[in-house]
Design a protein that fits this description.
Shape: globular
Number of strands: 13
Number of domains: 1
Structural class: alpha+beta
Mean pLDDT: 75
Strand order of the largest sheet: 7-11-1-13-12
Radius of gyration: 19 Å
Oligomer: single chain
Helix content: 10-25%
Low-confidence stretches: 190-203
Largest sheet: 5 strands, antiparallel
Number of helices: 4
């Protein structure tokens, strides 16, 4: 029923942390991202907030957006990768792939047929030396702007970042009874090169994958 793949993400630019280090901001940050309906068997906001705080380093400036840590190494939650894949699938489906009449769209197929391994929770952030990164490369300041009911506001955010980062992502793709993948690589490729297996995004990174037995 499932075909196993390992997707390797190679980041061509800086990979930045996104978790607030300020305990007072964590619950607001989680509230802004929680779904309208809580999925069955999922953690409560309080439980997730405790997990976030437990995965942070002891000494860090409270205004910094950071990476989570496990066993002194930098990590990301595997579930966040699937959320990113869903966003990318919607964009590809709308602007690149198109839709065949009476067939599910590419985005719907990704949503319903691509899952992460439930046995894996944390993904280590690894460097070009194939070892898990222990510390960020540095921090950077970035101006951010947002429109509010009172007008435009601006702020300066500080991010932890790493360079040369890689992630190895285990994914499960649903198969039909015949063994055929419910979603194939050809659907996301341009017609001029339907056999290509590497997809590169200049803004973020390159991804390659291989089937796992």
């Amino acid at each position: 029923m499932w075909a196993k793949f390992e997707v390797e993400l190679n980041f061509l630019t800086k990979l930045c942390g996104s978790v607030p280090s300020d305990p007072g901001m964590v619950k607001k940050w989680l509230d802004a991202r929680k779904p309208a309906n809580r999925p069955p068997d999922s953690k409560s906001i309080t439980e997730v907030a405790e997990e976030v705080m437990d995965s942070q380093p002891e000494e860090i400036e409270s205004s910094t957006l950071i990476f989570q840590r496990q066993e002194s190494g930098l990590v990301v939650r595997l579930a966040t990768i699937r959320a990113h894949l869903k966003d990318c699938a919607r964009t590809l489906s709308r602007l690149w792939v198109g839709k065949i009449e009476k067939e599910a769209s590419f985005a719907v197929k990704v949503l319903n047929c691509v899952y992460y391994d439930p046995r894996v929770y944390w993904l280590p952030i690894i460097g070009q030396d194939d070892k898990q990164m222990r510390e960020p490369t540095g921090t950077l300041d970035k101006a951010v702007h947002a429109m509010t009911p009172r007008g435009m506001i601006s702020a300066l955010k500080t991010y932890e970042f790493v360079e040369g980062a890689r992630l190895r992502v285990p994914l499960l793709v649903m198969t039909a009874k015949s063994g055929r993948l419910s979603i194939s690589e050809d659907e996301a490729m341009p017609a001029k090169d339907p056999t290509a297996k590497d997809v590169t995004s200049p803004a973020s990174g390159a991804s390659t994958y291989k089937a796992m037995k």
